[in-house]
């Protein structure tokens, strides 16, 4: 498969994820951003401001993985997501990261505001859908990072934490949403579905427990 075919295939996978997530209310308006690794040097990422439930072939850009200034953008003049640095840092962490997905669900947004120190998920069977979890008794502490419009600074803070806590499958940004990843778009999509279900459960438990 050549570069254009790779871009088309990954773009179609990300478009299907976008339609699924929009239908479930996880990417309202133009929120969220998605990317997938194309090869050792490039990724494809959603263009800024595009509706994730209506993504098409012209809504993706190819970005060089090692270039912070994003010079290798095609087509020329295209504008990648404002949060591209958060994706780039994940791919640079290792070749096992094949896709990064970011959603803005109500549950993720509310819980991240209620728990700026982190959200604990424990006792849920669906936890086993996440990598490294083999029992519902596992305790997963999902870190919450304070929001920051300086995305490279935020990305550096996130990666420093993930490097110190290897194996974490995702994180939240306060008042913003969820980032998770996987070896492929399909695996990352499964992680989004698991996280969003778990966060919705946790929010409902807290509401009913008041």
In short:
The chain is an alpha+beta fold.
The helix-strand sequence is HEEEHEHEEEHEEH
Helix content: 25-40%
Mean pLDDT: 91
CATH architecture: 3-Layer(aba) Sandwich
Number of DSSP-assigned strands:
9
CATH fourth-tier homologous superfamily: Class II aldolase/adducin N-terminal domain
Count of helical segments?
5
> Globular, elongated, flat, extended or rod-shaped: what is the shape?
globular
CATH topology: L-fuculose-1-phosphate Aldolase
The total number of structural domains is 1
Output the structural class.
alpha+beta
β-sheet strand percentage? 15-25%
Going across the major beta sheet, what is the strand order? 3-2-1-4-9-8-7
Taking the sheet with the most strands, its summary is: 7 strands, mixed
Terminal CA distance reads 55 Å
Question: Can you characterise this structure?
Answer:
Its cofactor is Zn(2+). Its EC number is 4.2.1.109. Helices cover 37% and strands 19% of the residues. By secondary structure, it is of the alpha+beta class. The protein contains 5 helices and 9 strands; from the N terminus they run αβββαβαβββαββα. The model has no long low-confidence stretch (mean pLDDT 91). Helix 2 packs parallel to helix 4 and helix 3 (106-114) packs across helix 5 (185-208). The strands form 2 sheets. Strands 3-2-1-4-9-8-7 form a 7-stranded mixed sheet, with helices on both faces. A two-stranded antiparallel sheet has the order 5-6. It has a single domain, classed as Class II aldolase/adducin N-terminal domain (L-fuculose-1-phosphate Aldolase, 3-Layer(aba) Sandwich), CATH 3.40.225.
């Amino acid at each position: 498969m050549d570069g254009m075919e790779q871009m088309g295939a990954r773009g179609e996978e990300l478009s299907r994820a976008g339609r699924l997530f929009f239908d479930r209310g996880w990417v309202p308006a133009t929120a969220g951003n998605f990317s997938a690794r194309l090869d050792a040097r490039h990724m494809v990422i959603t263009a800024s401001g595009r509706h994730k439930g209506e993504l098409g072939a012209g809504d993706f850009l190819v970005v060089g993985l090692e270039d912070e200034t994003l010079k290798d953008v095609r087509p020329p003049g295209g504008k990648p997501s404002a949060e591209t640095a958060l994706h780039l840092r994940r791919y640079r962490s290792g070749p096992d990261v094949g896709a990064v997905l970011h959603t803005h669900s109500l549950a993720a947004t509310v819980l991240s505001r209620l728990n700026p120190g982190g959200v604990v998920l424990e006792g849920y069977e669906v936890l086993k859908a996440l990598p490294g979890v083999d029992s519902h008794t596992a305790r997963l502490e999902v870190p919450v990072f304070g929001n920051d419009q300086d995305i490279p600074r935020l990305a550096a803070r996130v990666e420093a934490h993930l490097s110190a806590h290897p194996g974490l499958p995702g994180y939240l940004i306060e008042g913003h949403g969820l980032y998770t990843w996987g070896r492929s778009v399909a695996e990352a999509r499964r992680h989004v579905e698991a996280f969003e279900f778990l966060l919705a459960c946790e929010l409902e438990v807290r509401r009913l427990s008041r």
